[in-house]
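hey
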């Protein structure tokens, strides 16, 4: 395996500019959720150029490239949609320049997270050049709509495409560390029903905003007593939006709604999280709702799921993790840091919903995800493309 590791490192370095230039091409194409068509066809073209055995686009627009035809399946996933750029004045360069300069590829999506797919295209090229012959099928997935609904793409791949991996790697940014889980999350609305009256006589009515405000103060307290996990940390809840309605600005509000961003640590579930909020509003005319996502892919197909994204982690001694550690050590001569993401990924479906042993390894620092002046080191892309290749030989 040492000889293969050396060859992989040599090829990853040899194709450094190839990887960076491929990423540059992707970054130049704006690709918000449900608007990924152009970038998906560019990725498909890159996979085909790299010599993948098969490349296709599925019903909701995921680009899936295959190498090998073995019984065991490894999936390497990276989502191709990005968030928008925000206030352009906060950027010191064009977010869609894709400029390769000073050892970095610059632009929106370089870290979150087209850098991973650019790296795994090179992985495919390396594996084909080495004549990869293990009893393994590798699916390289450029997935869609993740920014809008984590895991939706993999729900489709597993349930509709009928591809269920035995192992998976998420290429979300990990700063070249190995990640083995993260907190789950869910989106909740709480609806409050009041009774309107003229604003000159509020005592005749029942103000929904006051109900929402009282609940909000209790939810703030709830955040301080949520469950804690030694690896994943504490659960959290915050109110990210409040809206209200009334017949006029001279009337008591007869409706209010709050939006909750709930992060779930180990042991917390959809049911337990809903019950906590229902307990807070039990004496109010209120309804707790877990939201549902129904998106329209660029292919025109509707697809959706409940906005409950399960918590997941795999044990530190799981073969998926230890194989990653061994591959990293063989390639780079040092031990990797094994940790977790702060944010949420497609791992909520791969492992959280379907139990697929999943690790994370990706180029870039997650601090730059969704931030201005996003850029990824070219050296990270080289490391990632080598890591995925050796992992395929070892798993």
């Amino acid at each position: 395996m040492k000889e293969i590791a050396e060859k992989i490192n040599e090829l990853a370095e040899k194709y450094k500019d190839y990887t960076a230039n491929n990423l540059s091409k992707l970054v130049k194409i704006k690709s918000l959720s449900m608007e990924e068509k152009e970038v998906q066809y560019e990725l498909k073209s890159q996979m085909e150029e790299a010599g993948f055995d098969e490349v296709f686009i599925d019903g909701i627009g995921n680009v899936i490239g295959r190498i090998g035809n073995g019984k065991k399946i490894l999936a390497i996933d990276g989502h191709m949609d990005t968030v928008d750029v925000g206030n352009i004045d906060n950027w010191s360069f064009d977010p869609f320049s894709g400029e390769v300069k000073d050892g970095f590829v610059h632009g929106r999506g370089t870290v979150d997270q087209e850098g991973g797919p650019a790296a795994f295209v090179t992985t495919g090229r390396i594996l084909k050049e080495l004549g990869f012959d293990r009893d393994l099928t590798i699916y390289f997935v450029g997935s869609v709509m993740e920014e809008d609904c984590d895991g939706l793409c993999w729900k489709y791949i597993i349930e509709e495409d009928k591809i269920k991996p035995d192992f998976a790697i998420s290429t979300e940014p990990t700063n070249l560390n190995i990640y083995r889980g993260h907190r789950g999350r869910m989106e909740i609305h709480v609806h409050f029903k009041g009774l309107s009256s003229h604003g000159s006589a509020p005592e005749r009515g029942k103000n929904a905003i006051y109900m929402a405000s009282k609940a909000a103060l209790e939810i703030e307290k709830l955040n301080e007593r949520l469950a804690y996990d030694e690896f994943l940390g504490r659960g959290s809840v915050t109110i990210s939006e409040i809206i209200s309605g009334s017949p006029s600005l001279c009337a008591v509000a007869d409706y209010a709604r709050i939006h909750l961003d709930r992060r779930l640590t180990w042991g917390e579930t959809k049911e337990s999280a809903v019950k906590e909020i229902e307990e807070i509003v039990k004496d109010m005319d209120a309804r707790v709702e877990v939201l549902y996502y129904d998106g329209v892919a660029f292919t025109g197909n509707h697809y959706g799921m409940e906005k409950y994204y399960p918590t997941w982690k795999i044990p530190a001694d799981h073969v998926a993790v230890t194989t990653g550690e061994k591959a990293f050590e063989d390639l780079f001569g040092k031990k990797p840091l094994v940790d977790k993401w702060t944010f949420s990924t497609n791992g909520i479906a791969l492992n959280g919903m379907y139990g697929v042993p999943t690790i994370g390894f990706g180029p870039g620092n997650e601090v730059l995800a969704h931030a201005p002046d996003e850029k990824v080191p070219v050296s990270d892309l080289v490391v990632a493309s080598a890591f995925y290749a050796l992992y395929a030989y070892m798993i």
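The longest strand covers residues 184-193. The chain is about 35% helix and 25% strand.
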